[in-house]
Amino acid sequence: MAITLTQAAAEHIQRHLEKRGKGLGLRLGVKPSGCSGMSYLLEYVDDQGLDDTIFDQFGARLYVDSGSLPYLQGTELDYAREGLNEGFRFRNPNEKAACGCGESFTV
């Protein structure tokens, strides 16, 4: 199963890389955190890791390390604006529950 980007997410990533003036893409990962156990990690990538899997869609690259990949298989990364709020949205089929504040999840 692949990890996918929506066109809106890909365009947002590309805009921010252009503003930064450097970078290969965006890293998506997970880390232990929060009241439900795990949280998503997003950071811009300047150097590819040895264990990275790369997903390339709509001209944007998403980098996922081998430790995070099992938790993210099948995830769709979207970017949306709703009123004054905007940000990445994760549609992760592995997610069994999320905390009330939306900061962490469990698989």
Descriptive report:
By secondary structure, this protein is an alpha/beta fold. It has a single domain (4-106), classed as Hypothetical Protein Aq_1857, Chain: A. It contains 2 helices and 9 strands. The strands form 3 sheets. A 4-stranded mixed beta sheet has the order 3-2-5-4. It has a 3-stranded mixed beta sheet with strand order 1-6-7. Strand 6 (76-82) and strand 7 form a beta hairpin. The mean pLDDT is 87.
Helix and strand arrangement:
Elements lengths: L3 E2 L1 H14 L4 E9 L3 E9 L6 E6 L2 E6 L3 H4 L3 E7 L2 E7 L5 E2 L6 E2 L1
Parallel strand pairs: 1-6, 2-5
Antiparallel strand pairs: 2-3, 4-5, 6-7, 8-9
Estimated share of beta-strand residues:
over 45%
Strand order of the largest sheet: 3-2-5-4
User: In total, how many domains does the architecture comprise?
Assistant: 1
Structural class: alpha/beta
Distance between the termini: 16 Å
What's the quaternary structure here?
single chain
The CATH superfamily is known as HesB-like domain
Largest pleated sheet: 4 strands, mixed
Query: Could you state the order of secondary-structure elements as H and E?
Result: EHEEEEHEEEE
What spatial form do the alpha-carbon principal axes imply? Answer: globular
Which fold name fills CATH's third level, the topology? Hypothetical Protein Aq_1857, Chain: A
Number of helices: 2
Per DSSP E runs of 2 or more residues, the count of β-strands stands at 9
Low-confidence stretches: none
Return the CATH architecture: Sandwich
CATH class identity: Mainly Beta
Portion in helices: 10-25%
* Overall pLDDT level: 87
The gyration radius over C-alpha positions equals 14 Å
